[in-house]
Amino acid sequence: MFPQYDVIVVGAGHAGCEAAVAAANLGSKVLLATMNMNTIAQMSCNPAMGGVAKGQIVREIDALGGYSGIVTDHTMIQFRMLNKSKGPAMWSPRAQSDRMRFAEKWRLMLEAHPNIDFWQEMITGLLVKDGIAVGVKTGIGLEIESKSVVLTNGTFLNGLIHIGEKQFGGGRAGERAATGITAQLVELGFESGRMKTGTPPRVDGRSLDWDRMELQPGDDTPGRFSYTDTPVLENQRPCHVTYTNKKVHDILRTGFNRSPMFNGRIQGVGPRYCPSIEDKIDRFADRDRHQLFVEPEGWNTIEIYVNGFSSSLPEDVQYKAMRQIEGFENAKMFRPGYAIEYDYFPPTQLKINLETRLVKNLFFAGQINGTTGYEEAACQGLMAGMNAHLAINEEEPLILKRSEAYIGVLIDDLVNKGTKEPYRMFTSRAEYRILLRQDNADIRLSPIAQKLGVINMEARMERVDEKVAAAAAVEKRFRAISVGPDELNTMLEKRNSAPLKQKLKLHNVLIRPNIDIALLREYLPDLKGELAPYDAESVNLAEINMKYAGYIQKEQEMVNKMNRLESVKLRPDMDYADLQSLSSEAREKLSNMRPHTIGQASRISGVSPADISILLVHMGR
Q1: Which CATH superfamily is domain 5-43+99-198+342-427+445-452 in?
Q2: For the chain, what percent of residues have pLDDT higher than 90?
Q3: pLDDT (tens digit, 9 = 90+) per residue, 241-285?
Q4: H helical segments located in 162-314
Q5: What does the angle CA 196 – CA 198 – CA 200 come to, to the nearest 5 degrees?
Q6: Can you tell me the distance from the alpha carbon of 369 to that of 420, in angstroms, rounded to the nearest whole number?
Q7: How far apart (Å, rounded) are the C-alpha atoms in residues 454 and 234?
Q8: Is residue 303 a contact partner of residue 182, using CB atoms and an 8 Å limit?
Q9: How far apart are CA 489 and CA 497, in angstroms?
Q10: Is the distance from CB of 64 to CB of 446 less than 8 angstroms?
Q11: In the chain, pLDDT over 70 holds for what percent of residues?
């Protein structure tokens, strides 16, 4: 009935979709197995992609040939570049998406791929032979063979939904939980744990008083995520902001005694950086209000997402409290918020390529690894799909360094440090963030994708080369053009910048604080003509390269130092127990985790700088 597949991907959420595409784009024959074809790429929580650090990840996925950025550009209803008041390392694109169109676009793109087949059924187990994953077992007893398997089960593994004192099995509202896989993995020797996440109520937009809330429009000139020719957003839907208040908090507190979070029914650890409203009230008891973002679910739907009001309190308490929020006095609820518990597997059980240590050719990606967020899941799926293809073809794995991508930071953190709470990416987690900007992901990563053989990368690389050349040309012009006091001193005085006493190269003016190219264009009419041949993306890149050259150089020097350790490979069969000079903790951790390089070993919790020195001496370094 089935051919033998190269890669079977279990689960069709954000991780599963990217995993399927990644393997298929490298030439593997892929089967994407899902419990429900109608929920492929479902936005289970908020209808948005990107945000702080997450936007950088989406651009990195796109640069490597993934589809998340393309789908977002085709289905967004609002675009904002966050943190524009800060330096470019912090700029983060974010888009509100049309939930239904997002899922539809993903499904249509997957169905258009000749290397991807589909199977709609619960996968209840793995086929493992001699320690190698060789397929999956389905709920009706079918066995489907493959050379590798990627598990992207999301919140479905023994999922348990909580609303007040009610609890019932489910992987998402209206969908059943997945059973069987956890028990088998534990039997194979894997350690499992429980995590929790939650979602807020959905409400009827027709019942809200929008005039009583703050308007939050999109950018005047909306950007895009993908480096390809995706459509530019011409019209946008606004979001709104409102706040909880003391009355809301008092009503919510009346339900604390029936809250599964407070009475111990929820065992899993929830996300620190996206707490439920009851958790916020409990932890920040001195706060009189909390901000809520009121977000539309799409172009035409009346359904509204109340971002910041995630809750597992009884539905009557949620409803009563919500109606005390300004603008929500007559709100009608579509469904209450809920919490969901699910199984995950501590990611220290993975190799750096996301393959499990215990079972060869078995890969984990997404919430099964303890992460939270669409973007974090999608990038893991992309890397797991690529590495599954590379593993079965006996090629070197794709391992992104911390200095190459936020994706590299995320996977390195997970595998070497592990996580006991849902892991979310932040710019603060990346030590080289001036190098890992959202504007240069294509320059950093598309050459890697082309070298791997990802399809359709030739045109992308032409664009990368053109962009780099254009940015260099802009910079060259700025170093050649001279400007005098009569042209710029009026502007410089307004900006509290020292006036010019003689002619100066334009480059030296640009690198001053509070001066940018947009401002210089206003005061130098000829500059508009000079820059006319170059697109906005190339001009922006040139500006960042000029203004932040010193910082970029410093970080690159730090990277070069660290890369010396990253280039020292450790033998997979090295006997750490025999190295008695190592601390006992280091011997245990290194034996269990089998780091790929000295650099990776240095980031394992419990391995000290002294242990690294001993390893270097042992290797003749």
Answers
A1: FAD/NAD(P)-binding domain (3.50.50.60)
A2: 85
A3: 999 999 999 999 999 999 887 777 787 788 787 889 999 999 898
A4: 181-187, 246-253, 277-283
A5: 170
A6: 10
A7: 31
A8: no
A9: 9
A10: yes
A11: 100
